[in-house]
Write a structure and sequence with these properties.
Oligomer: single chain
Structural class: alpha+beta
Radius of gyration: 27 Å
Largest sheet: 7 strands, mixed
Order of helices and strands: HHHHHEEHEHEHEEEEHEE
Number of strands: 10
Length: 293
Amino acid sequence: MGTWGTSLYANDTTSDVRDTYVGFLEDQLNNDEALKKTMAVFQDLIGDEDEEPLLWYALAETQWKVGRLTKDVKERALDWIAKSGGINLWEENDSGSKKWMETLNKLKDTLESPMRSEKKIREPKGVNKSFWSVGDVYAYQFHKEESKVNGVYGKYIIIQKVGEGKYTDNWMSKKDILREPILMRIHIFDMLYDEIPALDDAVKERLLPLALDYMEMLPMTTLIDFQKKNEYPEKYLHYLGNKPIIASKIVEPESVPALWVLIENTFNYFSTLWKDREYEIHEDGSFCRIDSK
């Protein structure tokens, strides 16, 4: 368990319990079902004198906040508070022990105060960051300061949406995956233009491998993301039209998504890496490296 402070949620256990319980409520489960499923997830904590109290603290405080505190959860939390549950985490730190007890006393006061009215928990809506149509082709204009150093300021590249998906990793739970935003999957064409290119140029130029040079099977697509709305470069994207997609096989494992704020760096890096190098396309749609030997 990671611990980074003496506040109630300054450790992995209480944070995970809180988020899991609230997540089940967001799935529109009633309180009994959400509690039962949360307890099933954290069943291994029962009997652990360091972590079990954290389970009840997080459940009790969170249930109180959303107006759903049950008698059993409240009693278990108060019982652990009376026994200074969790104090062992700070047994070699006098200052930490004192602050932890302050946290527990504050929690006790909260749980013994009138509970809030039941709060309506809305199901979270997925964020859609894939608002182009499949096949849409855009010209992107280089405009960042570093592009002046590279001599490509004001030039254009061609980008096409070929699909969409969600970035996932092995550590992500099913619930995390469902809540991940929908991202755009794109091709980038390996050519710079002085003027806004024509739609037909999207079938004349080769695709840019988004791969390191040691890879045999070349990923030719990437998911692309932005963290803040103003990171999406709408001002520098010029719609060219819609074209059939050049078929390509998606190579796994998927790398982390590219970012719109780094799209110029991404193009410059891979364009330089694959300059004057060839690749071939197999019948199954996969792109493969051709060694220069």
